[in-house]
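Example 3.2
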Amino acid sequence: MNTTDFIGYFSAFLTTFAFVPQALHSWKTRDLSGVSLPMYSMFSTGVAGWIIYGVSIASWPIVAANVVTLVLSCAVLWLKLKHR
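Structure, written as tokens:
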């Protein structure tokens, strides 16, 4: 693995797993009062765009990170919609 790939994977790991605490907190407490529906909707759509972009340029750090991020952000979004 070259330095550029390492930086990509390391950055992808940090930014992706930054969503884990929010997703776990939302799941455990069902308190989503501080979660913005428009923000998570826009963010999830943007992450889907990053996946498409990553596939089109064959950048697997971008694809892998954003697939996990999309799952986590959609889980929070789903909980927000379910517990309105």
